[in-house]
Design goal:
Blueprint: H1 2-38, H2 52-59, H3 66-69, H4 75-89, H5 96-109
Helix pairs in contact: 4-5
Length: 125
């Protein structure tokens, strides 16, 4: 009987430790998410130019600017992405001059990057 009691107490201790670890992990994840959310981006992180305000306002409703800044697409590819985001991710479709303003801005400032004589390796060029 005493052995069962020791076993039950051990199981309870193990469960409470696991619960405490899960609670600690959840707390740390919540704190990290809050810290990320608190880092509000400013429009100025994007390249200066006509269409920056429109691009920032429309695009950051769904994602941060890092996705834009690390991309290097042609105008046609940026235009295709507008349709893809609307179809696959529920973005409100945009047309007309507003779409042209955003796509032109993205193509001009976040278009294909020039490659150096060594194939674009930044350590060799």
């Amino acid at each position: 009987m005493r052995g069962l009691m020791v076993l039950a107490v051990g199981a309870l201790l193990t469960a409470s430790i696991a619960f405490a670890q899960d609670a600690d992990l959840a707390r740390r994840q919540a704190e990290a998410a809050a810290e990320i959310a608190a880092r509000a981006e400013a429009e100025t992180v994007l390249a200066e130019g006509e269409g920056r305000s429109e691009t920032f306002a429309y695009c950051t409703a769904c994602h941060n600017t890092a996705l834009i800044r690390r991309s290097a697409f042609s105008r046609d590819r940026w235009d295709e992405l507008m349709d893809w985001m609307a179809e696959k991710h529920g973005m409100n479709p945009i047309d007309g001059d507003f779409r042209a303003t955003i796509v032109d801005y993205l193509a001009q400032h976040y278009g294909p990057r020039a490659r150096g004589p060594r194939g674009g390796n930044p350590f060799l060029d």
